[in-house]
Amino acid sequence: MDILDLQAKSIPAALQSRIDALAIAAPTAPWLSAAEKQHLKDTIKTLLKQKNAQLVAHYYVDDELQALAEETGGKVADSLEMANFGAQSKADILVVCGVRFMGETAKMLSPEKTILMPDLNATCSLDEGCPPEEFAKFCAKYPDHKVVVYANTSAEVKAIADWVVTSGNALEIVSHLKAQGEKIIWAPDQHLGNWIEQQTGIEMIRWQGNCIVHHEFQTYELQALKEKHPDAKVLVHPESPKEVVALADVVGSTRVMIEAVQNMPDQKFIVATDYGIFYKMQQVAPGKTLIVAPTGGSKNTCNSCAHCPWMAMNSLQNLAACLQNMTGEVLIEESIRVKALASVERMLQFSRQQGLVKIQA
Ligand code: 13P
Ligand code: SF4
């Protein structure tokens, strides 16, 4: 075995996954001039109107895509509200700016609509780390358990599940199942699963996946940053390791973190999630100071790389191209869609009953 082989073997899976993602990630086109950007935005606006299409964007995508979604009557939201909004939209076409599971969820809920994505290769390490065949074998070992899967999974994995959850409703849904005396298989995010266990006191059979962005937040460096900014509140997404969660003042979904910045009286926040969320945080609380939590050690040149490489694959150019050419259509095999829909609808119905999402008039 030569040195190269040895090096290749010693790369941890999560890091390799990040390297692969960075290799395929389309840059968000920093080389475009202001006039070129404006032209693309105008084209997108015209196409959206002509085709009765709406943009549904996640908080982690490029600022300009979030702004476009808002300006054109679309939605910028967390994954739960994206699903809820898309299901109630009157548009013929939804263009989902996010990652593939978000497009697939929209298609499950609205099979009559055309669902487009700027780049169908925009995936998620949690989805990639939970292959349906292996997951089915895993579940078969525990036939008396309810299968609860995070939204960040493929349609095939959702088709195996009894319940789908997001970080915006996982606590409520697992607490509900616990009250009914159910035993639970949880997949795929190990850290979110751990946080749910801590909060509810339930023990679950857990799949050991992780998010390549949140898994990287560093405990020691975050503690040091907290000490440097004793007046800052720390906001942490529960996909982060438990030692990082333990340093948080607020733990919650992207929506919960934005509401914390908006509603808490504090002026300074250290934020442990993808920094794409700063666009919305700055919008709802313009005067407040936001600091990204560290993903690198103190000697690293990059102190924080908290940006999802797959979310970064959404750009003005590929958004305009997918609308223009009707490319990037999300399709799901019908038998899978119908099975997966049952667990997604159960989640949405529960969330609407609990007031966790809006019911549009
Ligand atoms: P939210 O459900 O909080 O939007 O998070 C989705 C996600 O992919 C977080 O990494
Ligand atoms: Fe998946 Fe993490 Fe990217 Fe969210 S940030 S889409 S969990 S890889």
From TrEMBL:
Its EC number is 2.5.1.72. Keywords: 4Fe-4S, Cytoplasm, Iron, Iron-sulfur, Metal-binding, Pyridine nucleotide biosynthesis, Transferase. GO terms for cellular component: cytosol. It is found in: Cytoplasm. InterPro entries: NadA (IPR003473), NadA_sf (IPR036094). Its cofactor is [4Fe-4S] cluster. GO terms for molecular function: 4 iron, 4 sulfur cluster binding; metal ion binding; quinolinate synthetase A activity. The keyword Iron-sulfur applies. GO terms for biological process: 'de novo' NAD+ biosynthetic process from L-aspartate. Pathway: Cofactor biosynthesis; NAD(+) biosynthesis; quinolinate from iminoaspartate: step 1/1. This is Quinolinate synthase. It comes from Thiosulfativibrio zosterae. The gene is nadA.
